[in-house]
């Protein structure tokens, strides 16, 4: 229908997707050094940590929760990875241990939220500090760099001379799983219900607590996977790896149109938001914008991303209102 | 009527030829209305007839597309609710919104407290003024009491007092009695009569016809946005009024069929939730409609929640068709064939921003999946099927349920649960706040379900509904089951006696 296509045109995730394309086209045209394959592979590789965590974060925010401890979980996993590698454990044992640790971190968040009924914002600000503190205790100020080169090559390399980093391939597989989980399974459907009205979801037989516990646990797992990837990608395991990454993830997810109050959004929008943020950071780096200024831009984007979707929704609500007439109630 | 001719014959507030459209929908068509001082005027009409739009036009929320609003005979244009309030028009909503941590006096004078030197709030003057307002209303409420913990009835009184403090001459009461008990309604009516004696004009909206006849002098009926009549109630019967609202003869309101009760479908034994309800035992058989009566707060809803598993119970057991249910697990209760249509459809029954299709689909996520994924086609046809069977009126099945009228929202909740094919259906206040036509449809549906062998437990505060529909009446009082009355012995007197704890059966 023509008018519903019109309404869809102002959906925020479509806006972000269009914005991403515009930014990419402008960058190809006007930013020196942007369009070559090597820079594009850097762009993608540097954005992958944000993208990896954004997958479960999107599901979590849709269900009405948030996890701000993800960057600390990633840092802790990197630190434990470095410490165990220093102890002489084989990398094939170290990585599973780190992932298991991420599961535990996520489980702790999930249990505190679901069993004690605490707000996730408060719980995960607490564990943000705690997990980072443990990371420092584990590794101190050491930096571990001598991981086996096949692993380093995989995490930092690209396929031939193309713009495709090796690591993009497993990410795409995970993205497909996440898209299916959120948009094509009963589980995903019930997440939207929970995020919009968790009491109504509970009355419809949705096991809200179990659902949230699963999400927090998966988020912990993905955060630790990101921590492992980070240490290998930058060939450096330090306790302060990925510090502040949660800001980028939350900014990107909200920028992609996931409603902070839960119940609304699409993974496509969230991933468009992630790569929009990644592209902007890349362009700023090429333009010698300092890291501090880049954080300012991220912060501004975060505010805009909360604002933008609301404005878009008001516009489309106004259109819908003119179309169907806000049906008169009793 | 006599009130009018004895006092000022000029209407304090009048609408002349008001029309209002939202897009293609004409919510109001050429509506005229006169409100006279010292008169209680009823506004009747089905859900979606335009009552809300009319109220919002009077209250300055909507501006009419055409027509005039006359205040004391002078045309006025309200640019917002504050304009209407300053003109002496106040709206009392069904569920007031007070600041819970402020006292009654502070709520009434919020933002315009009497001041002492240096701009300090004069608490004593605030309190005295509040006490004076309460005295005018003839109600005893301590001005220092915090709003938190006040009953809805008391909160409404606070809102009315607030309206008086603004020198309101026109009070619009939008379904004020929907959530009140019998004695609270009686007190509200005393207050309304006091307001009438003091010369206020009251516009009273209610779905309960007997209340309209009890308190109002004249009635204006809206049907599909158009005015049917603004006429005296004296000499009119309930049937006359219903015909004006519905535009046709109404089918029987309580179409109860006689069904032979079958096997025990739901068995609740010695169920206790500490501090909420105690030692509740009852059975519901296939084909039976069992009514559950009692005052608001007697524990009926809480028993239903525990049986369904939304809350945990502390002792006792629940069986559906002989199989024990797990404590605190709605998903297993659903799997056993239990369905609960909850009391509050907006908070518990529906996800308001979600589509009709997906709201109905929410109870069928297991049933409509294929290889672990959603089968959207199956979901759509299941939802469409039930929306059509229950005659939900909607534009598109993908529209958000928030766009539907209250009665149609309730039908969506029913559709959502009937789609699970329950063997035991618990309905909690199934017709609260819905119009008389839809109400009859819901009753017919419940009756047909029972005839098909479904065991129905119907919680209701609407006594005629209980008496008209139930094969047996269970009565709760203060967390205990105090009586079980067969249909033949159930009367207003026997049920109310048990509900108020005056008789033990």
Describe, in plain words, how this protein is organized in 3D.
The complex is a heterodimer of chains A (330) and B (505). Helices cover 75% and strands 0% of the residues of chain A. Chain A is mainly α and 330 residues long. In chain A, helix 3 runs parallel beside helix 8 (168-183). Chain B has helices spanning 2-6, 51-58, 81-86, 104-108, 123-137, 152-165, 182-197, 209-215, 238-246, 300-308, 330-335, 345-349, 356-361, 376-389, 406-418, 436-451, 463-469, 492-499; strands at residues 13-22, 25-35, 39-44, 66-71, 74-76, 89-92, 170-174, 201-205, 218-223, 226-232, 264-273, 277-285, 289-294, 315-320, 323-324, 338-341, 369-370, 373-374, 424-428, 455-459, 472-477, 480-486. In chain B, the strands form five sheets. A six-stranded mixed beta sheet of chain B has the order 6-7-8-3-9-10, with helices on both faces. A six-stranded mixed beta sheet of chain B has the order 16-19-20-13-21-22, with helices on both faces. In chain B, a hairpin with a 2-residue loop joins strand 14 and strand 15 (323-324). In chain B, 47% of the residues are buried.
Strand order of the largest sheet of chain B: 6-7-8-3-9-10
- Helix content percent band of chain B: 25-40%
Quaternary structure of the protein: heterodimer
Distance between the termini of chain B: 46 Å
Largest sheet, strands/sense/barrel of chain B: 6 strands, mixed
Q: With helices defined by DSSP (H or I, 4 residues minimum), what is the helix count of chain B?
A: 18
Number of strands of chain B: 22
| Average pLDDT metric of chain B | 88
Largest interface comes to:
A-B, 32 and 53 residues
Secondary structure topology:
The complex is a heterodimer of chains A (330) and B (505).
Chain A: H1 2-9, H2 12-30, H3 37-62, H4 70-87, H5 91-116, H6 120-139, H7 149-156, H8 168-183, H9 186-196, H10 198-203, H11 208-233, H12 245-255, H13 267-286, H14 291-324
Helix pairs in contact in A: 2-13, 3-8, 3-9, 3-11, 3-12, 3-13, 4-5, 4-6, 4-11, 5-6, 5-11, 7-11, 8-9, 12-13, 12-14, 13-14
Chain B: H1 2-6, E1 13-22, E2 25-35, E3 39-44, H2 51-58, E4 66-71, E5 74-76, H3 81-86, E6 89-92, H4 104-108, H5 123-137, H6 152-165, E7 170-174, H7 182-197, E8 201-205, H8 209-215, E9 218-223, E10 226-232, H9 238-246, E11 264-273, E12 277-285, E13 289-294, H10 300-308, E14 315-320, E15 323-324, H11 330-335, E16 338-341, H12 345-349, H13 356-361, E17 369-370, E18 373-374, H14 376-389, H15 406-418, E19 424-428, H16 436-451, E20 455-459, H17 463-469, E21 472-477, E22 480-486, H18 492-499
Parallel strand pairs in B: 3-8, 3-9, 6-7, 7-8, 13-20, 13-21, 16-19, 19-20
Antiparallel strand pairs in B: 1-2, 1-4, 4-5, 9-10, 11-12, 11-14, 14-15, 17-18, 21-22
Helix pairs in contact in B: 5-6, 14-15
């Amino acid at each position: 229908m023509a008018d519903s296509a019109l309404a869809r045109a102002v959906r925020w995730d479509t806006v972000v997707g269009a914005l991403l394309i515009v930014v990419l086209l402008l960058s190809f045209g006007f930013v020196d050094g942007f369009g070559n394959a090597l820079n594009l592979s850097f762009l993608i590789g540097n954005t992958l940590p944000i993208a990896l965590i954004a997958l479960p974060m999107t599901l979590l925010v849709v269900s009405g929760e948030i996890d701000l401890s993800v960057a600390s979980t990633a840092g802790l996993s990197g630190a434990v990875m470095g410490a165990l590698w220093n102890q002489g454990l084989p990398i094939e044992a170290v990585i599973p241990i780190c992932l298991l640790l991420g599961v535990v971190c996520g489980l702790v968040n999930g249990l505190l939220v679901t069993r004690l009924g605490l707000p996730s914002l408060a719980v995960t600000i607490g564990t943000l500090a705690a997990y980072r503190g443990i990371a420092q205790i584990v590794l101190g100020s050491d930096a571990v760099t001598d991981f086996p080169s096949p692993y380093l090559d995989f995490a930092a390399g690209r396929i031939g001379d193309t713009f495709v980093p090796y690591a993009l391939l497993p990410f795409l597989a995970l993205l497909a799983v996440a898209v299916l989980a959120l948009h094509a399974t009963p589980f995903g459907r019930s997440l939207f219900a929970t995020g919009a009205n968790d009491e109504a979801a509970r009355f419809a037989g949705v096991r809200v607590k179990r659902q949230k516990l699963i999400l927090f646990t998966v988020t912990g797992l993905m955060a630790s996977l990101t921590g492992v990837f980070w240490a290998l990608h930058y060939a450096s395991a330090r306790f302060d790896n990925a510090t502040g990454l949660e800001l980028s993830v939350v900014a990107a997810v909200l920028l992609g149109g996931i409603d902070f109050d839960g119940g609304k959004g699409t993974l496509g929008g969230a991933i468009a938001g992630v790569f929009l943020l990644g592209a902007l950071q890349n362009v700023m780096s090429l333009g010698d914008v300092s890291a501090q200024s880049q954080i300012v831009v991220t912060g501004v984007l975060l505010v805009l991303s909360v604002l933008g979707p609301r404005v878009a929704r008001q516009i489309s609500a106004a259109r819908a209102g003119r179309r169907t007439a806000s049906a008169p109630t009793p | 009527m006599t009130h009018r001719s004895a006092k000022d014959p000029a209407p304090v507030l009048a609408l002349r030829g008001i029309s209002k459209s939202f897009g293609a929908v004409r919510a109001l068509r050429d509506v005229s209305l006169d409100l006279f001082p010292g008169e209680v005027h009823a506004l009747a009409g089905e859900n979606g007839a335009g009552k809300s739009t009319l109220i919002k036009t009077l209250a300055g929320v909507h501006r009419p597309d055409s027509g005039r609003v006359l205040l004391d005979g002078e045309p006025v244009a309200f640019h917002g609710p504050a304009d209407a309030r300053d003109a002496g028009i106040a709206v009392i909503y069904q569920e007031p919104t007070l600041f819970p941590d402020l006292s009654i006096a502070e709520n009434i004078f919020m933002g315009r407290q009497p001041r002492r030197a240096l701009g300090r709030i004069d608490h004593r003057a605030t309190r005295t003024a509040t006490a004076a307002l309460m005295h005018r209303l003839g109600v005893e409420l301590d001005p220092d009491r915090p709003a938190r913990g006040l009953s809805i009835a008391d909160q409404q009184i606070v809102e009315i007092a607030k309206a008086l403090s603004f020198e309101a001459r026109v009070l619009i009461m939008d379904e004020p009695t929907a959530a009140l008990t019998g004695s609270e309604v009686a007190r509200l009516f005393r207050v309304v009569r006091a307001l009438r004696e003091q010369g206020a004009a009251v516009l009273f909206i209610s779905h309960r016809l007997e209340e309209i006849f009890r308190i109002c002098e004249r009635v204006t009926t809206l049907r599909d946005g158009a005015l049917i009549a603004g006429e005296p109630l004296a000499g009119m019967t309930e049937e006359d009024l219903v015909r004006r609202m519905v535009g046709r003869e109404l089918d029987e309101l309580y179409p109860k069929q006689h069904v032979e009760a079958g096997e025990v479908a739901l068995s609740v034994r010695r169920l206790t939730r500490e501090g909420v309800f105690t030692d509740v035992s009852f059975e519901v058989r296939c084909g039976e409609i069992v009514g559950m009566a009692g005052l608001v707060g007697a524990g009926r809803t809480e028993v239903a929640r525990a049986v369904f598993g939304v809350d945990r119970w502390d002792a006792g057991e629940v069986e559906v068709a002989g199989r024990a249910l797990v404590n605190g697990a709605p998903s297993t209760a659903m799997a056993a064939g239990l369905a609960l249509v909850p009391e509050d459809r907006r908070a518990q029954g529906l996800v308001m921003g979600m589509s009709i299709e997906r709201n109905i689909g929410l109870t069928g996520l297991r049933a409509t999946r294929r290889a672990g994924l959603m089968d959207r086609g199956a979901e759509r046809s299941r939802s469409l099927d039930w929306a059509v069977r229950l005659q939900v009126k909607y534009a598109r099945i993908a529209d958000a349920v928030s766009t539907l009228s209250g009665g149609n929202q309730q039908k969506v909740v029913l559709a959502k649960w009937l789609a699970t094919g329950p063997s035991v259906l618990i309905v909690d206040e199934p017709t609260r706040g819905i119009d008389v036509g839809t109400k009859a449809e819901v009753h017919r549906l419940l009756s047909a379900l029972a005839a098909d062998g479904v065991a129905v437990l119907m919680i209701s505060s609407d006594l005629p509904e209980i008496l008209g529909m139930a094969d047996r009446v269970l009565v709760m009082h203060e967390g205990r089951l105090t009586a079980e009355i067969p249909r033949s012995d159930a009367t207003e007197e026997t049920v109310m006696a048990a509900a108020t704890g005056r008789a033990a059966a």
